[in-house]
Specification:
The chain is an alpha/beta fold. The protein contains 27 helices and 26 strands. The strands form eight sheets. The chain has a seven-stranded mixed sheet. It has a four-stranded parallel sheet with strand order 9-8-11-10. Helix 3 packs antiparallel against helix 4, helix 7 runs antiparallel to helix 10 and helix 23 crosses helix 27.
């Protein structure tokens, strides 16, 4: 019989009396709007201590030993571990991923273990559904279908995750010829609240329904699974293998789908109505019909995935995040975002990268695209398959199932595999008296337990049980190294030559103290994983460490995001709030400047003055001042000595540095597993999210703030349900979902 661990009220009161959360300037506001769940029995949303209790208990009770009459000794041991985790997270010395902060400990977690993982990867090729929660009724579980990877992507996006997907030639070539064009009819009952809006986007009333023996009729249930199955049926009808009766007319009845604004139970948020689904199904069918008698290209397949992502974005609280990985010689794929009409319609829904290996040399057109619009990114699958940390050398096939990556690029993944993240703020943890080796060991055990979740898809269960992959990340890396060392990790460059091309290059020189610091922590993670894996009788994790880009989570603690340099020493950070958001009166009362958002109606822009950690240090550097060469070198440092997965970083560059992109991509081809770059805008856009300012302006704006938002909010409100973010994401680059 399962027995659950719980934290006592007395323990939590002791922690609240002795530990002060390390809120950043945006921390509490970001928390309250993003991760504080509504408590109907109390008529308010969670407080931070309640969120941490829910999250820690949800995780500790995943320990599989609790399922079988656990001993008092085991329960005591896990309770003590839960208490250490609670104290660590409550103080914001470390935190699970944003997904865990939102989902862990909820009924939704118990229903679908997928919900605890941020992002996934799937190869777009015919696959079997297997023993999964979603299997179309017309298919056998072992029967391969073109629809399966699209169903996987659709399902995980609707659960709030991001999905990387491969449209490389090796996958697209396995998709058979499109045999049939399908006559698709979408119907909605005339009595439905959504009738008028549905007709406007292409549906018809049920009174106009014409059904005959040659048509297939399916009435969608009002569930996530219903949306997925409708799309699967539409796709599979185009192929003779999954349409043996050669039916060429499909009627989908959307009358039961809840109307716009209705509450979504489980993940949260409000419904979009059937309209986004109607538009998506019509568009997907058009892509497939246009290829009847021919073969789908990587661009066609990416379009279908983007159309699915677009529909999911319309689902309010869900934020679609996709990465399309194509072949490096597929020029149609590389240039697909140059079609401005399709870019605006749906191709914005993914970041696009190309797969390379260390022998690849064609960086010139890639660099040209990056200088033009920041794409494509680079994913080196050869390094991912055969290396952990670069310093540990070649380990042939150590991660041989890798085919792609998550949307942010910090975790190389096999087909159906998710990333599994935990984030440590080393400077904050040290300042709160923690031994960092203990902190990273706790993080390893936390993520290991996540791998015992009840996953919905067979391909995921199989690869998770095999790999038990975890991703322990650091954020505030620049803050930590600058504070502890007094300088940045790259202390200079020395002249050298490329070992293959003999081209002259500048090789970075690293502070040896920094190498020792991260190496010790890496070994602490591995040691903790080895011990816990032995205790649980499961495989050791195939890889352990990473650097995630961070974003919303880093804002909680006020740390620099992942390995990124602060955007500036002093900033105006703008956050957008819906005009009805009850946090707005509290912010105004405290003296924060506000103005109407010029881009979105009924939205207010609030300005927060921010001072970066270490801003007054003479060795401080920001994204606006640090060179592109130093950013490449810093990413390479972390890939070499810390991360055995990958290192996510969006390298920014000035216009004058654009001509260095090609040579730097080539120089680090033996070290860096994934790379993305963007031009540095420096707040030049109107109402830019981040605008660098000088110290004098920062001090002046800070003096205008006269109150504590948390206290004022409590005075003004009895609390309000369903506060929603407008523009925050769980990563610095915006590629990952918010929750």
């Amino acid at each position: 019989m399962s027995e659950e661990i719980s934290l006592s009220a007395e323990f939590i009161d002791r922690v609240k009396a002795s530990v002060k959360p390390h809120w950043g300037k945006l921390g509490w506001v970001t928390y309250k709007r993003t991760y504080a769940r509504w408590l109907p029995e109390k008529g308010r949303s969670e407080n931070w201590d309640e969120t941490v209790k829910r999250v820690v208990e949800g995780n500790i009770n995943l320990d599989p030993r609790l399922q079988d009459s656990p001993s008092l000794e085991l329960k005591q041991s896990l309770t003590e571990e839960a208490e250490r985790l609670y104290k660590l997270i409550y103080g914001l010395g470390a935190t699970p991923s944003g997904r865990n902060l939102w989902i862990s400990g909820t009924d939704y977690q118990r229903r679908t273990g997928d919900s605890l993982n941020n992002c996934w990867f799937v190869a777009i090729r015919p696959q079997k559904y297997g023993d999964s929660k979603i299997v179309p009724s017309y298919l056998g579980k072992q029967e391969k279908a073109v629809s399966m990877p699209f169903s996987f992507l659709f399902d995980e996006l609707m659960k709030g995750g991001g999905v990387g997907f491969s449209v490389a030639r090796s996958n697209i070539s396995q998709i058979p010829r499109v045999d049939f064009a399908i006559d698709l009819q979408l119907v909605v009952d005339e009595t439905s609240e959504s009738y008028d809006a549905s007709v406007k986007v292409g549906a018809v009333g049920k009174n106009e329904l014409v059904q005959d023996a040659d048509s297939i009729y399916y009435r969608l249930p009002d569930t996530r699974e219903g949306w997925v199955l409708a799309n699967a049926l539409l796709i599979d009808l185009h192929f003779a293998q999954t349409n043996p009766d050669r039916k060429q007319k499909l009627i989908l009845d959307l009358s039961d789908i809840r109307p716009y604004g209705a509450e979504i139970h489980g993940f949260g948020g409000t419904a979009s109505g059937p309209m986004p689904l109607i538009s998506m199904l019509l568009d997907v069918n058009e892509v497939l019909n246009n290829k009847a008698g021919g073969r789908l290209t990587a661009v066609d397949v990416a379009d279908i995935c983007n159309l699915i992502g677009k529909a999911v974005v319309a689902g309010n609280v869900r934020r679609s995040a996709e990465l399309a990985l194509g072949s490096n010689d597929d020029q149609d794929f590389i240039s697909m975002k140059q079609d401005q009409e399709k870019l605006m319609h749906h191709r914005w829904a993914s970041n696009n990268s190309v797969a390379v290996d260390s022998a690849f040399s064609g960086y010139q057109p890639i660099a040209a695209g990056i200088r033009e619009n920041g794409e494509p990114g680079i994913v080196n699958l050869d390094l991912s398959k055969n290396y952990g940390r670069i310093v540990d050398g070649y380990q042939g096939g150590i991660d041989g199932d890798v085919e792609g990556t998550n949307p942010c690029g910090e975790i190389s993944l096999a087909n159906g595999e998710p990333c599994n993240l935990f984030e440590v703020f080393p400077l904050i943890a040290e300042e709160q008296g923690w031994d960092l080796q203990e902190v990273f060991a706790l993080a390893a055990r936390y993520t290991k337990r996540v791998t015992f979740s009840p996953y919905d898809w067979e391909i995921s269960r199989e690869i998770i049980q095999k790999n038990r992959r975890i991703g322990i990340s650091m954020s505030g890396i620049q803050d930590w190294l600058l504070t502890r060392l007094g300088n940045r990790v790259v202390t200079g460059f020395k002249d050298d030559f490329d070992p293959e091309t003999h081209e002259a290059i500048k090789v970075p020189v690293y502070d040896k103290r920094a190498i020792k610091m991260v190496d010790q922590l890496y070994k602490a993670v591995v040691k903790a994983d080895q011990a816990y894996s032995k205790t649980l009788g499961c495989n050791e994790s195939i890889k352990h460490t990473t650097v995630k880009p961070s974003g919303t989570v880093a804002k909680l603690a006020g740390a620099s995001e992942g390995m990124h340099f602060h955007y500036g020493a002093y900033l105006i950070q703008r956050i957008r709030f819906q005009d009805s958001d009850p946090l707005l009166p509290a912010l105004k009362a405290c003296g924060y400047r506000t103005e109407a958002d010029i881009y979105t109606e009924n939205t207010t822009c609030v300005e927060f003055p921010i001072k970066a950690v270490g801003a007054d240090n003479p060795n401080f550097a920001s994204a606006g001042t640090v060179s592109i060469a130093e950013q490449f070198a810093t990413q390479a440092f972390l890939q070499t000595y810390w991360s055995d997965n990958a290192v996510s970083c969006t390298i920014t560059f000035q216009d004058s540095e654009g001509d260095q992109v090609e040579s730097l991509l080539r120089q680090y081809r033996f070290i860096t597993k994934s790379t993305s770059l963007l031009p540095y805008f420096g707040g030049s856009l109107q109402q830019a999210p981040k605008e660098p300012i000088d110290k004098e302006t920062y001090e002046k704006r800070s003096q205008e703030i006269t109150g504590n938002v948390e206290e004022v909010f409590s005075q003004l409100n009895s609390d309000v349900k369903d506060l929603e973010l407008v523009d925050q994401t769980d990563c610095e680059g915006g590629a990952c979902p918010i929750k």
